[in-house]
Predict the 3D structure of the following.
Amino acid sequence: MKSNHLHTPNSPTHPASLIAQASSDSGLAALSVCIGRFQIFHHAHLAMIERCLEVAKHCIVVLGSSYQARSPRQPFVWQERQQVILNSLPAQLHHRITFLPLRDFYNMQRWSQALQQQVHALFPAVALSQIILVGHHKDTSTEYLAQFPQWQLCELESQGPTNATALRHTYWQLSPVAPNKQDPALGWQVIQQQVPHASFDFLKQWWQSPDYLTMAEEYFALQKEKKAWSAAPYPPILVTVDAIITHKQHVLVIQRGRMPGKGLYALPGGFLEQHETVYQSALRELREETGIAIGPEQALQYLKAVQVFDHPSRSQRGRVISHTHHFELPDGFNLSLNAGDDAASAQWMAYDEVVANADGFHDDHFFMMENFLPLSFQPQLLKSQQVLS
C-alpha cells in the first residue's frame, strides 16, 4: 500500500539529492518544469508531463490556481489534481516528480517571480541552464511561457483539439440541473476518449459529490447570465466597485448570498449604476450590504487608497473591472453590522483569519485585499514536496 510522505532536503531519497546524479545520465538535463491548471486532466496534459520526464532527471509539475475556492472554471483543489496525475503515471516514476502548488497573483510579473523563487527554494543547486520548461504555445492562455527566458524552452507539438474548457462543459452537462439534457452515456464517452483512465475514474467519483452539483448549478447560472448579454453588439465590459473597510487589524467581509460564489467570503461591492460615480457607488454598496453608512464628505477623511483591478480572468462573469476603495475607520465609529442585499452575512475578520481563509474568498478578492493590507500568505514549501513512492 502506497502512502504520502515528505522528502526532506537531507534525505538521500529527496529529489534534490537524486537530481545531483543527473550529470551522469547522458542527454538528460537536471530539471524540467511544466505548468498547468489540469482542470480537467487530459491526454495532452499527460503527454506534457511524459515529455518532461524524457528530457530531464526530475520534473516539477506546477499546479496553477491553487489555494483558492472551487469554481466552475477551477473545480478541483490541488491535492485532487496531484493524485489524479500520480495515478495516471507508473508508480516507478513517482519519485522523479515534485508537485508545486502555486496560487494566482493576477499579475504576470509577480506570478513568474514567485514560481522561480519556489523552484530555486526546492532545488537551489540546479543551474538555470539545466532547467527545461516544457510547454506548447496554444493561445493567450500560454503566454506565460515567455516569462522564463533564462530557462530552456522545449516546445511540445500539438496534441490535437482536446480542450479542458470544452471537457468541463461536457462534464457539467451530465448534471440533472443542465437546461439542455443530453444522453449521459454519450457525454461520458466523449470524456473517456480524451482523458487518462485515472482521470476518468476520478471524474466519475467526483460526479456523485455535493461539490459537483454546486459547481454545475453555478456554471449554468453563469451561462444564463452571459446569454442575456449575447445580443450586445460588442462583448460587454462590466464595471463594479468594491470597498475594503478596515479597523484595528480587522477587515469587513461579507458572505455572498447569491451565485456566483454563493457562501464564499467577499468584499462588499456590486455593479456601478448609471447615475453614480464609482466613489458614490462604493459607499452605496457598502451601506446596502453591511449597514455601514458613511456620507461622501465624511468618507473622504477615511479614504486611504483607490486601485483598479482589471485582469481579464479575474471574474467568472467575463470581463469585469473593479474600482476598489480602501477606508480605515477611526476609533469611536459605529462598527455594528446589518447584512442585506446580496450579502447573506457580514463580519469583521482579523487579518490572520483572512489569510487562514484565503481559499474561501470569491474570485480575486483575497488578492485585492493583499494589495492594500499587510497580509502574509506563505504556503509551506513542504506541501509541494509530497510524492508517492
Notes: The domain at 4-162+383-388 is CATH 3.40.50.620 (Rossmann fold). The longest helix spans residues 210-228. The longest strand covers residues 237-246.
